[in-house]
Amino acid sequence: MCSPLKAPLRIALLMLCLLALPARAAEVSLSFDAVHHEFFDAEGMVLSFDAAREGEADIRLRRLRIGQAEYRELRLHCSDFFFDGHRLDCPLGTLSSDDERGRGRPPLPFSLAYRARDGFFEFVLHDVDAVDLSPLVKRLRGWKPEGKADFRLSALDGKAKLELALRDVGFARGDVSAKGIAATLEVDAQRGKRGDWNWQARLDWPHGELLRAPWRREGGMRAVANGTVGPKEIDVAMARLEVARFGAVNASLRWDRVNDETTAWGFVTERLDLATAMREWLQPWLEQYGFPAWRTEGYAMFSAEGRRGRLLRFYAGLQDAAVSDFTGHIDLRGVSARIPWEADAPTQAEMGVTSGALGDLPLGKFSFPIAIAGSEARVRDLEAPMLDGKFTIDALTLGRGPGGWHGDFSGGIEGVSMPKLSHALGMPTMAGTFTARIPRVAYDKGTLALDGVLAMTVFDGAIAVNQLRVIDAFSKERRFVVDVTARNLDLGMLTQTFSFGTIAGRFDADLRDLEMTGWKPLHFEARLASADGDYLREVSVGALRDIASMGEGGLPSGAKHLPERSIGFGYDRIGIAARLADGVCTIDGIGRDGDGIVLMEGRGFPSVRIIGYNPRLDWDALVARIREVLAGKSAMLVQ
Question: Which of 638, 568, 573, 627 is nearest to 599 (CA)?
Answer without folding.
Answer: 573
